[in-house]
C-alpha cells in the first residue's frame, strides 16, 4: 500500500470514502478485476448502505478473506459505536498482523502437492455455510508420514502462516497465565520467534524454547535468541528439567505417528509435580470448556464417535493441511494420548483458570478457551497453593 495513501488517511479529518478508501482498499483489486466499474460500485453500495454489523462482516470477507469470529466482530462494532469512522476501521484491518500475514501467504507460494496423490484429494461441503473445501483422505497410517514429509521438505514453516510474531494481547495473556504457576523454569515447545518467552524472561523466569523453523529464529528477539534451540524436541539436549512446559498451538501440527515420542520426551523433561499448559483445538464437547471448535465436516462424525483422530484432513489449495494441522481430533482423544504418556489432567486447575480468565480470553481469541492443564502427579497440597495464588494474584 503506498505510504502517501496511508499518510493522507491518517491525517485527514472526515475522509471522503470515494477518494480515500477506494484508493487504498481497492486500488490493486480493481486493476485485476475484469469489470472495474461494477466492483467499485459494489464497494460504494456496501459502504453507504449497510448497517455497522453487516459492514464489519463485509470487511472480514473482503480484506481478511474469512467469516468473522464472534469476539472480533463485536470488538469492531464497538469501535464504530465509540464514534470512530468507517475509514478508520478499514485502516485497522489493513494494518493488522493478520492482513499483513495474508498478503505474505498469498504472494509467497508453496510447491503444490495435490498432483502427487490426486486420488486422495477431494472436495467436500462445509456444514452451515455450504462452502466447498479441499480435503486429503487418510487411507493408511503412512499417509500422515507423507504429509509431514512434504511439509518439512517444501519449507512450509519457512514462510509466514496465520500465526503472528508480535508481542500482542494474546501472547501477553498466555504469559500471564503461565506466570500464575510461579515457575522458576519454563520450556516453550514450538516457541516460534519467542514472543511469550520474552515476556517470561522480562519477569525473571528462566526460559528455554524449541523450534524447527529457521524463519522464526531469524525473527527472534535478540535477548531471546540464545535461549531457543533449533531442532526436533525429541533429540534436543537441555541443561535442566522444567517445572512448567508450554505447548501453545503446537500439538495439532505434529504427526500422530510420532506424537507419543514428543509426549514421552516432555514427561521426562518435566520436574515432579510440574505442569504442562497447552492450547489444542479439541473437537466435540469437553467436560470443562464445552464446545469451542465446530465439527464442520460430516466425515469427522464417525472418527469423533469412535474416538479416533480424524482421517479426513482439511487442506489448502496447494494440498497441505490447513494451517499445518495434521492432527484433528476430539477432546477425549487428545486427553487419552497425554494420559498414555503418564500425564494427569487437572480439571480443577483448569476450572479455576476458566473462572478467572474466560472473559478476557473470549475477547482476545475464543479458540484459546480450548486449553488443558496436565501434571506430573501433582500433590493436593501443591494444587491448593495454586488455588490460593489464583485468588490473590
What would your notes on this structure say?
- The protein has 393 residues and is of the alpha/beta class.
- The chain has two domains: 3-95, no CATH class; 169-392, Vaccinia Virus protein VP39 (Rossmann fold, 3-Layer(aba) Sandwich), CATH 3.40.50.
- Helices cover 45% and strands 15% of the residues.
- It is built from 17 helices and twelve strands.
- The strands form three sheets. The chain has a seven-stranded mixed beta sheet, with helices on both faces. It has a three-stranded antiparallel beta sheet with strand order 1-2-9, with no helix packed on it.
- The longest helix is centred in the last third of the chain and has 18 residues, at 347-364.
- The protein is globular.
- Mean pLDDT is 87; it is low at 1-34.
CATH architecture of the largest domain: 3-Layer(aba) Sandwich
- Helicity range: 40-55%
Q: What shape does the CA trace take?
A: globular
Oligomeric assembly: single chain
What's the CATH H-level superfamily name of the largest domain? Vaccinia Virus protein VP39
CATH C-level class of the largest domain is Alpha Beta
Main sheet specs = 7 strands, mixed
* N-to-C series of helices and strands: HHHHHHHHEEHHEHEHEEHEEHEEHEHEH
Spatial strand sequence of the major β-sheet: 5-4-3-6-7-12-11
Strand content: 5-15%
In total, how many beta strands? 12
Average pLDDT number: 87
Query: How many domains, in number, for the residues?
Result: 2
Give me the secondary-structure category. Answer: alpha/beta
Number of helices: 17
CATH topology of the largest domain: the name is Rossmann fold
Low-confidence stretches: 1-34
Radius of gyration, Cα only, in angstroms?
Answer: 23 Å
Distance between the termini: 44 Å
Amino acid at each position: 500500500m503506498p505510504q502517501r495513501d496511508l499518510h493522507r488517511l491518517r491525517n485527514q479529518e472526515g475522509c471522503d470514502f470515494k477518494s480515500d478508501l477506494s484508493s487504498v482498499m481497492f486500488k490493486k483489486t480493481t486493476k485485476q478485476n475484469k469489470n472495474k466499474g461494477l466492483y467499485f460500485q459494489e464497494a460504494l453500495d456496501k459502504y453507504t448502505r449497510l448497517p455497522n454489523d453487516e459492514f464489519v462482516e463485509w470487511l472480514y470477507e473482503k480484506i481478511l478473506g474469512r467469516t468473522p469470529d464472534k469476539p472480533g466482530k463485536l470488538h469492531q462494532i464497538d469501535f464504530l459505536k465509540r464514534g470512530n469512522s468507517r475509514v478508520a476501521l478499514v485502516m485497522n484491518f489493513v494494518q493488522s498482523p493478520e492482513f499483513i500475514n495474508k498478503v505474505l501467504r498469498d504472494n509467497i507460494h508453496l510447491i503444490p502437492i495435490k498432483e502427487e496423490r490426486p486420488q486422495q484429494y477431494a472436495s467436500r461441503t462445509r456444514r452451515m455455510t455450504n462452502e466447498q473445501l479441499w480435503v486429503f483422505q487418510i487411507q493408511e497410517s503412512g499417509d500422515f508420514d507423507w504429509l509431514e514429509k512434504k511439509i518439512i521438505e517444501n519449507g512450509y514453516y519457512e514462510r509466514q502462516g496465520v500465526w503472528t510474531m508480535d508481542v500482542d494481547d494474546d501472547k501477553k495473556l498466555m504469559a500471564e497465565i503461565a506466570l500464575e504457576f510461579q515457575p522458576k523454569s519454563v520450556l516453550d515447545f514450538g516457541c516460534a520467534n519467542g514472543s511469550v518467552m520474552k515476556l517470561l524472561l522480562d519477569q525473571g523466569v528462566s526460559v528455554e524454547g524449541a523450534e524447527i523453523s529457521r524463519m522464526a529464529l531469524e525473527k527472534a528477539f535478540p535477548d531471546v535468541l540464545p535461549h531457543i534451540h533449533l531442532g526436533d524436541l525429541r533429540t534436543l539436549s537441555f541443561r535442566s528439567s522444567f517445572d512448567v512446559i508450554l505447548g501453545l498451538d503446537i500439538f495439532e501440527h505434529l504427526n500422530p505417528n510420532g506424537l507419543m515420542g514428543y509426549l514421552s520426551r516432555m514427561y521426562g523433561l518435566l520436574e515432579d509435580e510440574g505442569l504442562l499448559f497447552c492450547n489444542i483445538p479439541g473437537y466435540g464437547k469437553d467436560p470443562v470448556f464445552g464446545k469451542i471448535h465446530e465439527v464442520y465436516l460430516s466425515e469427522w462424525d464417525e472418527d469423533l464417535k469412535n474416538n479416533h483422530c480424524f482421517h479426513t484432513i482439511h487442506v489448502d489449495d496447494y494440498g497441505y493441511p490447513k494451517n499445518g494441522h495434521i492432527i484433528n481430533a476430539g477432546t477425549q482423544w487428545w486427553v487419552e494420548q497425554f494420559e498414555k504418556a503418564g500425564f494427569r489432567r487437572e480439571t480443577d486447575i483448569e476450572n479455576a483458570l476458566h473462572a478467572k480468565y474466560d472473559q478476557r480470553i473470549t475477547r482476545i481469541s475464543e479458540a484459546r478457551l480450548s486449553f488443558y492443564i496436565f501434571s506430573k502427579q501433582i500433590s493436593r497440597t501443591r494444587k491448593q497453593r495454586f488455588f490460593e495464588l489464583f485468588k490473590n494474584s
